[in-house]
Amino acid sequence: MTEKDAILLAFEKEMIPKIYGFCRMKLRSEADIEDLSQDICLEVLKSIHSGKKINNLNAYVWKISNHMFFNYLRSKKKGSAVYYDHMLISEEDVEYEVILKEQKNLLRRELSLMSGNYRRAVVMHYFENMSCEDIGKALGKSEGTVKWWLHDARQAIEKGMNTMRNYGEKSYRPGALYVSCTGNPGADMEPVSCVKRKSAQNILLAAYKDPVSITELSEELGISAPYIEDEVYYLCKNQLLKETVKGKYQTDFVILPGQNPSIGNKIYAHAFPDFYKNLMTFIESKKDILTEERFNTAGFEWSRLLWVYIPVFADFTVKYYRHFNNINYIHYNDIPLRPNGGKWIAFGFDNSDTSPKKFEKYHGWDGPVHKLGSAFTQGFFHYWSGIDSQDYFDIPNEVFALLRQIIKGERVIDKLNEDEKYLFSIAIEKKLFVSKDGSFTQNYYYIGKNELRELEAMAQEFAKSVCDIVKSSYKLVLDEYEASVPRHLHWQMGNFLSNALTIFVTCSLYEAEKNGVLSSSDTEGKYWLSLLATEQ
Fold this sequence. Notes:
alpha+beta, Arc Repressor Mutant, subunit A, elongated
C-alpha cells in the first residue's frame, strides 16, 4: 500500500465521522451540516490527491475544517441569520466573535475531557490563582507532583486544541440497556437499580468490548469528565464496571443483543417440533395426578391448568440442563456476594437497535420471574397476560402469605382483621382473587410444598427424556454468541447464553394456544394465567 493509499484509508475510516461530528456541533440545520461536511471532505481529498505532504492527518483535517467553517459563515449574505453556539452572528462580526468564541469553547472542551487531578490542578492554578504548594496541600500531594500535573495538562490542552475530536454516536443517539440478574438482588434491588439512568447504561455499553478511559467515555457520550467520573465510581462500587488497568474501565457482565431472531429461527427449526410433541405427550400422561384437588386448589379446567404446567415443565428442563450438563453454569453457592447485601451475577440486553426483527413463532424472550420472601411465587408474563411483571413485584409478599392461609383453610375471608382486610383488598385489586356469584374465587395456581416436590420430580423425569434435544440446541446458541462475548466474561456465559433456551417455554405456549389446547383468556382470567405460587 502506498503512503497516499494509507492516508486515504485513514481519512475514510477515522476522519469522515469526526468531520460530520464537527459540523453537527457547529450548526443546527441538517442541510447545512451535510453541505459543510461534503465541502470539508472534498477539500481534504483534493489535498491528498494533489500529493500534498501531510504529516499529521488529524491536525490537518482540523485546520481545514475550521478554515472551511469560517468561509461558510462569511459566505452568508449580509443581514442573514447565522446560528453559531446558540448566538446570532452577522457577516461583519464573524472574524472577531467566532474566533474568540471558538477558542473559549475549545479550552472548555479540553478541560471537560480532562480527568481527575489534572483537571483540578488546572482549575485551581489558572482559574482560582492558587500556588502549586497550596494545590498540593489541598489535594494531599507534593508541590513537585502538582507541577508535573500542570506540565502534562498544558501539553494535553495544546495538543487537544489542535485535534479533530468528535463526540461519539451515543452523544446524540444513546443506546438502551436492560439489566437483570441471576441470584438474589441487593438491598436496593441492585444491579437493576444501578442502571436506570441513560448515562450509566451507555457507559456500560461503551465499555463492553474493550477497556476505555474517562476521556474516551466523555467523548463517546458527550458528557463532561466530572459527571462521567461520578457514574464510573458508582458502577465500580456496585461491581458492574471494573478498573482493568490504571485509568481504564470495562463492563464486568455479559451483554447480549436485545433482538436476534436468527437464533430463535434456528432452534425452532432444529429442535422445537420434537420437544413440543414430547412435552405435550408427557403432560397428558400425568393428567390424572395433575388434576387432583391437591394440585388444583382453584378448581381450574385442564385447559387452564396447562397455562401453568407447560411453562413450568419446559422451564425446569432448561434449568436441569444448566445444572447437570457441564455448560459452565455458576451455581448459587458460587455466585459472589455483593457490597449491598446481594448475591448475584448481572446480565444485560442491548436494546439500542429498535429496527423490527421478527420471529413469528413466539412473542418475546420470556422467562420466569421470581418473588421470594414469606411466599414463593414464579411467574411467566407474556403478551397475552395484559400486565407488566413489575405489577407482580409491587405486590407485598404478605399478600401471597395471607392468600396461602386462605387457600389452605387456615384463615376465613369473613373473619379477617383490619390489616388482613387491607392485604386482601390488594389481592382483589390485582385480581389474584375475583368476585364471582357473591363470593371470592381463587384466580391463580397454588400448590403446597409436598406437591411442589412431586411436580419437580415429574419435571426432572421429562427433562432427562429430552436432554439430547436441549443439548444440541445449546450448541447452536454457543456458536451464535461465543465470539461476541469478551474473553474475561466467558466464565459467566453458561448462565446467560442458556437464557436463549427459554424459547422452549414461549414457543410451547404459543403452539398450544394456536392449536386450541389452552383456555381463552377473558378479562377476569387473563392476569395470572402462568403464575405458580407455593410454599418454600
